[in-house]
Amino acid sequence: MLSNPVDGTAKGPAVRPPVSAPVLGLLRAAHPAPAGAVTALVTALAAASGRDAYGCLLVALAVLTGQLSVGWSNDRIDLRRDLAAERCDKPLVTGAVQARAVGTAAGCALLLCVPLSLANGLLAGSAQLIGVAAAWAYNLGVKATLLSWLPYALGFGLLAAFVTLGLPGHPWPPPWLVAAGALLGVGAHFTNVLPDIDADLAAGIRGLPQRLGRQRSRSVAALILLGASVVLVLGPAGPPGPAGWLGLAITGALALATALPLGTDPRSRLPFLATLALAAVDVTLLLLRGSSPA
Question: Where are the alpha helices (DSSP H) in 120-196?
Answer without folding.
Answer: 122-140, 150-164, 175-193
